[in-house]
Design goal:
The complex is a heterodimer. Chain A is mostly helical. Chain A has helices at 3-28, 32-57, 61-91. Chain A has one domain (3-91). Chain A is 84% helix and 0% strand. The longest helix of chain A has 31 residues, at 61-91. Chain A is elongated and about 55 Å long. Chain A starts with a helix and ends in an 8-residue tail after the last helix. Chain B is mainly alpha-helical. Chain B has two domains: 8-55, no CATH class; 63-170, no CATH class. A three-stranded antiparallel β-sheet of chain B has the order 1-3-2, with helices on one face. Chain B is globular. The two termini of chain B are 18 Å apart. Classes of the chains: A mainly alpha, B mainly alpha. The A-B interface holds A 17-18, 21-22, 24-25, 28-31, 33-34, 36-38, 40-42, 44-46, 48, 60-63, 65-66, 69, 75-76, 78-80, 82-83, 86-87, 89-90, 96-99 and B 25-26, 28-33, 74, 77-78, 80-89, 93, 95-99, 116-118, 120-124, 126-129, 136, 138, 140.
Amino acid sequence: MAIDEVVSILLLLAGAVFFFAGTLGLLRFPDIYTRLHALTKADNVGLGLMVAGLALQAESAAAVGKLMVIWLLVLLAGGSVAHLVAAAARRRGIVPWKR
Amino acid sequence: MPGFRDSGEQRFVSFFPMRILLFSLLWWILTDGVMASWLVGVPVVLLATAVSMVLLPPFSGSLRGVVQFVPLFLWRSLRGGVDVAWRALHPRRPLSPGFIKYRWHLPPGLPRVVMADIISLLPGTLSVELGDHYLHVHLLDEQQDFLSEVGKVEQSVAAIFAISLWPEREIK
């Protein structure tokens, strides 16, 4: 196996670990605000690593560009939607979980 | 939005080519660089540029600010991901959340929205409300030093938009 294939597989696996951790956080964290933290951050990194891993296997520069555009759009959507959900929760008076 | 949309004409000239370049790049990416597609691509790029000028009027910006921000953002989001993954996987699920208010030093409008978006992707912070004077942020761990982190992001955003932050004493 070529070295770039090995690096690509490692990046994809690392990405999967972050998606797993993000989902675990979504299930385990105590309230809506902390769950949003888990989703936005872990999935942002997980997708970034997957995009990096797939870019190494891409057949053209345009395909790499397409992967980057996907990541940027998901970042934009993730950041904005997390904010909107949190803002709605606060307006409804949902009290954040305290230790 | 005073303070960051002045001298519009000059920026119009400098930003029109920039947008044509970006939309052309996007078209090239989407069509896998097929030459024949430019028959449709050229009018589409021009139309998209014209529409974007209406939807998002030209604003000041610094390419250098953007380039300097990229490694900072990548490193921090990686840290944010590792931090939250560790807390999710830890048997005791260590969290001590809290709310803070951060006083804006940025002018209202696009810069504040961009900053709020970035904050939500960085370690331990989630922007909840964009107030007139404050950004309300939810923290995953109150004990961490959030103020200097948020301040650094604000400086980066100011550099991206090529604007200066309001000095502390002028804020009421």
